[in-house]
Every structure is written in structure tokens, then in C-alpha cells.
Amino acid sequence: MTNENIELHDNKSKKLSFEIENADIKELTTLGAAEYFKREFPDLNHSFSEKQKCVCCMDEGTAHKDINGEVKFAFAGSGILFPASSEEERLKKVANILIERGVTNITSHGGCGAAGLAYHRDFPDVGAKENLAEKIEAYAKAWSDKLADKIKELGHPAERTHIMAEDMERPTEFHNARVVYFDGVGGFNPNKEIGLPMGFVIERAYLPSEYTAEELKVAVNIAFGHHGFGELFSSDLPFIIIALAKSGEELYKLKNEILSVLSDNENLSGGKIKVDGLTV
Ligand SMILES: [Zn+2]
User: Fold this and answer.
1) What's the gap in Å between 60 CA and the centre of ligand 1?
2) Other CB atoms within 10 Å distance of the CB of residue 73
3) For residue 3, pLDDT beyond 80
């Protein structure tokens, strides 16, 4: 196929993939998250765990995946975008967060958007280099290898898992996330419930709010960009940020935090992003 034909084919499968979930998203939008989840997923609280064993990307393709039955901690690119003045400092900070969570399995995955951002952060002059996708995948793997080594150096066990792009719970060509789970409860694993709307997972309970604000912006950019559903979102079928909270008071705070992070996003003011939530 020519490039143009591939693009047409991708747009068609993207549209089909979008349509499959429309009935659920319509119901979620009409009922509101609290009522929708109470009706459709009454046992949602079983999908949260206080301790996690495995760190995986916030990407819906890994967040919705069962990885050896392990409880997962969602973290963009396994921490590759965490703010630090050097790689060494980033490794230490992220290793300590993961040790605190009980994480011993460090994953990386193919087609990682966070790793792509990190690659461009560290090699700003890269341009449209040949084999860029392979280079980014190798970069993602190398980061997770170094992270596992750092955890071991700090006296804790660590192993490595790489998830191939074709083994993710989403098409390799595009992101099919319709929502973001902005998790203020902690340790949300959407693969524990069958049929949940596909979504990025942001671990707001265990990561600093200045940082999760960045993850939220990344998720929104991916969803509305070339690799996401983009133009297919509308005010009738919006991209939904779902705050998950332990109490009504926390829910109110989380929703305001999300609104403030996205305050200058035109898709929010245009109604293509909806902020909703529920207590668990
Ligand atoms: Zn990723």
C-alpha cells in the first residue's frame, strides 16, 4: 500500500473503533459518571489496590492489560518524564517512589508516547531521523533497564518486562482511549473489570499534583492528536476526564484541579472535553 492508502485504511479502522464504544460513551455522558458506574460497574471498588507489584505506562493499551496477574501502578513511560535535573536524579526519585509502592516489575512497551517525548527532550535536534520509532523503543527499554538496576542498587528486588506493541490492549496504529481515569483513590487497575471504557490511568493518589498535571496534558494531547481519535470527539461524544475520589469533598477538589490544569485548552471550552467523576 502507498502511504496515502495506509492513511485512509488507518482512518477507517479508527472510525470503526470509535463507533464501537459510542453507545457506552453516550450513556456515560447522559447519565453522568456517578450514575453510570453505579449501574454498570457496581463493584468498581475491587479494582483498586493499596500496594502494587508492577509499574506500567499510563497508556490505555498497558493500563487495561493483565500483566502476569500483577497489580499495576500507572506511570507514564515508567517514570521517564518525571522532572529532574539529570537522568541520575530521575532514576533515584522514580526508584524511591516505586520502592514505596512495592513495585518489583519494571515494564516498558512498544509505541510509547511518553518515551517519544523523553527522546525529543534529551535529543532536541533529532528531527525526522531514520528508524526513529526503533530508536525510541530502545530508549524506553534502556530507561526501564536502568531503573531496575537502580532499584536493585538500593537493596530491593527488580525484574524487567517489555510489552510488544502488538501485545497491548489497543490497536498498534492509534490510541483508542475515550477517557482518563484521574485516580485519587490509588492503584486503579481497569483490567479488573470487563468492559470499562478505554482510558489512560493517572495515579494522582501516589504522585505529586504538579507532575500529574503534566501527565494529564500529555493524555489530552495524545487523544486529540494524530495518534488519537482527534477530530472524532465532539460535544455529544466528548473525551471524558473521570476523577476517582474517596469522598465528595475530595471529588470536588480533584475536578477543580483538572479544570485548572486544562483551563486554557480550547477543547475544554469548546465542550469536547468533559470533566466528571465519582466517589468509590
Ligand atoms: Zn507509554
Assistant:
1) 9
2) 28
3) no
| 16 belongs to a structural domain | no
- Distance between Cα 39 and ligand 1 center (Å): 31
Cα-to-chain-centroid distance, residue 253? 21
Ligand 1 centroid from CA 216, angstroms? 13
Cα 117 to ligand 1 centre (Å): 10
Structural domain including 272 reads: 22-279
DSSP code at position 193: S
Task: Round to whole Å and give the CA distance between 258 and 150.
Answer: 33
Tell me the CA–centroid distance for residue 30 and ligand 1, in Å. Answer: 31
How many A from CA of 182 to the centre of ligand 1?
16
| pLDDT tier for residue 246 given thresholds of 50, 70 and 90 | very high
Q: Does some domain include residue 195?
A: yes
- Closest listed residue to residue 80, CA positions, set 49, 28, 113, 115: 115
Amino acid making up residue 150? K
Confidence (pTM) = 0.95
Question: Would 14 be classed as within a structural domain?
Answer: no
When pLDDT is averaged across residues 62-71 and rounded to a whole number, the result is 96
82 Cα: distance to centroid of ligand 1 (angstroms): 13
- Split into its structural domains, the chain has a count of 1
State pLDDT tens for residues 10-52: 788 999 999 999 999 999 999 999 999 999 999 999 999 999 9
Q: Is residue 12 part of a domain?
A: no
Q: Are 119 and 80 in contact (CB under 8 A)?
A: no
| Nearest residue to 21 via CA among 270, 199, 168 | 199
